[in-house]
Amino acid sequence: MTSSTTTTIESPAAVSLGRGLDLHSPVMLASGTVSYGEELSQLCDLSKIGGLVTKAISPEPRTGNPPQRIAETSCGMINAIGLANVGLDKFVSDKVPFLQTIGTRVIVNIAGKSIDDYCQVVERLDAVEGIAAYELNLSCPNVKGECMIMGVSPDATREIVSTLRKLTGRHLMVKLTPNVTSISAIALAAEQAGADSVSLINTVVGMAVDHRTRKPLLKNVTGGLSGPAIKPIALAKVWEVSRAVKIPVVGMGGIASFADAMEFLLVGASAIQIGTMNFVYPDIGEKIAIAIDEFFSAPGAPKFSEYVGSLIV
Amino acid sequence: MLQTSTISDVRTRISAIRPAGTDVSILSMPCPAIAAAARPGNFVNIKVSAADQPLLRRPFCIHNVEGDTIDVMVKNVGRGTSLLCEASCGESLLVLGPLGNSFGTGTGDFDTALLVSGGIGTAPMRFLEKTLAAAEISFHHLVGGRSRADLLTSGLSNVSTATDDGSEGFHGNVVQLLEKHLAEQTAAGRVKVFACGPNPMLKALARFCRDRAIACELSLESVMGCGVGICYGCMVELSNADGQKESILLCREGPVIDGERFTA
Ligand SMILES: Cc1cc2nc3c(=O)[nH]c(=O)nc-3n(C[C@H](O)[C@H](O)[C@H](O)COP(=O)(O)OP(=O)(O)OC[C@H]3O[C@@H](n4cnc5c(N)ncnc54)[C@H](O)[C@@H]3O)c2cc1C
Ligand SMILES: Cc1cc2nc3c(=O)[nH]c(=O)nc-3n(C[C@H](O)[C@H](O)[C@H](O)COP(=O)(O)O)c2cc1C
Ligand code: FES
Q1: What is the ipTM of this complex?
Q2: Does residue B146 belong to any structural domain of this protein?
């Protein structure tokens, strides 16, 4: 069960998130913003980045929601893509072979409608080389639970994580939605059930309206807000969760620069993910990874592990 | 419909900007790598300002290529396009391209190209005309707009126009104008239609061409988040006469599609 096409580069910003998820840079690219890596690889040196999280994979292919699926809002965007993806079979046959060559850790984001969906994806992918971790996206409606979102309930989170824990020896990263009353309660449930890390935040529920047409901009009416607009929310949630759990926290939400990434490390993230800004600057991950590496390589620089969570309050 | 391969992200400066009609400007920017690889129908994705707002890039067809320089023709419809239309020479932009596929001019199965466009849809037609002329393929433009002020014919040759209000050219829409010209054009040989404009116009045109078995390629529009295939935001739903439906990411599998796929 190895994942090594990655040549380990000795970097002072290398970080281990546990259970074999060793990153040569703390910078990852977020799910749903990099497809399966092919397009971006022409515009960005992915080997400089610590990890790439794929678009959510579900057992069956999905076309997603009807258009219009995205809209720009103040300093951000809302999306209702609807977890469009190639499905498990095509992912393994068409996408994994390329991912095995990119020289960075591959984390597969999984979305399902039931626990069984998640199990199906993990069981199949466990037999496939070149995957370092699974990121569980629990923010989709659960058919069994009358359209309840699994990730908003500590009990449902505990149930799915402990089920998958028994199934796989690979790193399990649980992705947290900010659209809950207590995000740290969900994070704790994930930790207790055997998660190796948590990543946050997923998008914030949002809406955009055109007063002239009296219509919502998205066909789906509501969507997920992302980009620089959500950074303050994300920082606060990462700060809260990193003090509640002992497992590593992966921070994201609006990261658009080296400085933004450092802020997430300060509030307690051991690694970060870049999402929306890949759409604007396709090489942003490479640039931020290099800048972080240079910062921690400079004479007199703090140690990476000591810098994480060293916010002065 | 050819797929492009070499994409560059070019930091450039506006070298010229000139008005081309009501609320429309043409911007010139030196982008050697993009100019060298561009094909008619391709687009570029422009980061209009370094600020967080507007955040996303804005897509524009390549209007013309002159040596190392590319032109885009921009209609002011909102925040991003107003910044571009009101920009001054020397302003810095990030231009990603060439993106998307291109018009199939080299298919050899037609004698005359009919370039049908409406409103800002005329933007890609200059570059298309140039490519056809260089290949010594005869062409004829059919350009439509609501009124005289909407016709963006500057720089084009061999043009017939139509306006909804009859203020210039044929009184009616471009599909009716095409109908009027068709007999004369088909008498001279096989025709192929290349079109760009509002989606409802393109749908009407696709049906018109299907009913007469005329080859037709359309350049469609959708809202785009990235232009390169990583956001999945630009999906458009197509359906053909047999009721077959498909969903495509327009930035990768378009913007140019075979008219057959857009008739239902
Ligand atoms: C492949 C492609 C090629 C294009 N080529 C040209 C061109 O050559 N010249 C030109 O002037 N315009 C072109 N457009 C349209 C242009 O991209 C939009 O007008 C522009 O993005 C609007 O930005 P804004 O910030 O001014 O508008 P916003 O303030 O964001 O929105 C204003 C209005 O424009 C609409 N809009 C927003 N984005 C798009 C979009 N991508 N396509 C269509 N409508 C949109 C919104 O729904 C809204 O009604 C093209 C679009 C595509 C997809
Ligand atoms: C277009 C789009 C699609 C996304 N798809 C997914 C997805 O499939 N699975 C998931 O867990 N998160 C998805 N996300 C959420 C991002 O991974 C990230 O959590 C969020 O956008 C916040 O980070 P950002 O502000 O840097 O974009 C998506 C985000 C965007 C903008
Ligand atoms: S515009 Fe992002 S996938 Fe097409």
Answers
A1: 0.95
A2: yes
